[in-house]
User: Fold this.
Amino acid sequence: MNELAQTIIDAHGGLDRWKRFGKATAHLKQGGALWSLKGHEGQLDEVDLTVGLGEQWASHSPFSADGKVSHFKPNLVTITDSAGKVVEKLEEPRASFAGHTLETTWSDPQLGYFAGIAMWTYLNMPFVLAAPGVESAEIETWTEKGETLRRLRVTFPSNIATHSTVQTLYVDASGLLKRHDYDVEIAGNTPGAHYISEYTDVDGIKFPTRRRIFPRQPDGNSLDEPLVVSIDLSDIRLS
Assistant:
């Protein structure tokens, strides 16, 4: 890792402490324009979330009003009913998004895939910077609302399912994440600017609890509207 990547990891609690844990759970409230655009308004407004730390998997419960649960892994998404029986599955889910645009609606397993890669990425960041095959390099600084932020360009290997191969992190003087840019490949490479705030300390690891995602313009600036996705996390626990 380069110096900035190490600084960011240390600011969030350090890799040694992070490696003590195998999963994270949290209560998740979501909003924004994306969910209705994709045909799933209200479905994931308020759920319980579990993600693997390191190993890539995630689950949302309830995934629907009738108590279904989603189970995401990079190569398979399953939806189970309240009794645990598999009622839908999607193998090699990434391929199912071929030709999609921002306006293309999603099936339930596709929603489970997107929600899985998103929340796994968010809760494993920045510690995923130390994962095998992840490359990073510091790029020029960025000034926003009077604050100068250092930036890290991150390139993910193909075996990590996330929004896009190349992403950019923005960090403040203390090394904490303030913004996270990516292009959502499975939605027509839609560019997003993801703002991060309201940190809490959980067993020595710092987690942001408030996330707001807006469209990103070609010059790197974000639009004030529409609000694409809002994410609020509470009751974060590590085990």
Q: What stands out?
A: The longest helix spans residues 108-124. The chain has one domain: 3-16+23-234. The CA atoms of residues 51 and 86 lie 19 Å apart. The first strand starts at residue 23 and ends at 31.
